[in-house]
Design a protein that fits this description.
- This protein is of the alpha/beta class.
- The protein has a single domain, classed as Maf protein (Alpha-Beta Complex).
- Helices cover 28% and strands 22% of the residues.
């Protein structure tokens, strides 16, 4: 029996690689958006991760007519009032890369002691299988912001995020470890269990 194909509503190759690794052995075929030949411009103007995930899933599923998974995730830093939050991917404005965004965040936290550097990654996944209504799943990874970047794995804010219970940043941890503790893993595991139980 052919495993179900699920289109991932993102052009972020890092996300696609992580999702594929996390669902390995789950009898699901993860298909990048480019493979189905669908080009969709999505304005992520929701004020929550869930709202943005639903916007992306709806737009892509409507365009390709296939089961679609959309993820919206980001970093919340307590000392910054929850910023960057839903603006994590665009924090600091256009033209900045991951390194620049990490540096900006570290600059904003300069001098803050460890107890004030608490933070978390949040992930919301929306799954839409036309014509059924969408369902959503959530995951969280608690931790704190490091004093400086470290590590070469992962992407985004991984080099400055110390997961709870670890002394290494997400970018220092082997991907196989990150992929069993991350916010995205927890949300995907909830989706996987839901799909299996149907």
């Amino acid at each position: 029996m052919t495993p179900p194909r699920i289109v991932v509503a993102t052009a972020n190759l890092g996300k696609i690689a992580e999702i594929r690794a996390m669902v390995e052995g789950a009898d699901i075929e993860i298909v990048p958006l480019a493979v189905v030949g669908t080009s969709v411009t999505v304005v992520e103007d929701g004020d929550t991760f869930e709202a943005n995930a639903l916007i992306k899933a709806g737009a892509v599923a409507a365009a390709c007519g296939l089961p679609t998974l959309a993820d919206d995730s980001g970093l919340e830093v307590d000392a910054l009032g929850g910023r960057p939050g839903v603006h994590s991917a665009r924090y600091g404005g256009e033209g900045l890369d991951d390194f620049d965004r990490c540096q900006r965040l570290l600059t904003e936290l300069f001098g803050a002691p460890p107890e004030l550097r608490t933070a978390r990654f949040r992930c919301a996944i929306a799954y839409l299988e036309p014509p059924e209504p969408p369902v959503t799943f959530h995951g969280t990874l608690e931790g704190r912001i490091a004093l400086r970047p470290a590590g070469t794995h992962g992407f985004g804010y991984d080099p400055i995020f110390l997961p709870q219970g670890f002394q290494e940043t997400l970018a220092e941890l082997p991907p196989v470890v990150k992929n069993t503790i991350s916010h995205r893993f927890h949300a995907l595991e909830a989706l996987r269990l839901w799909l299996r139980a149907r």
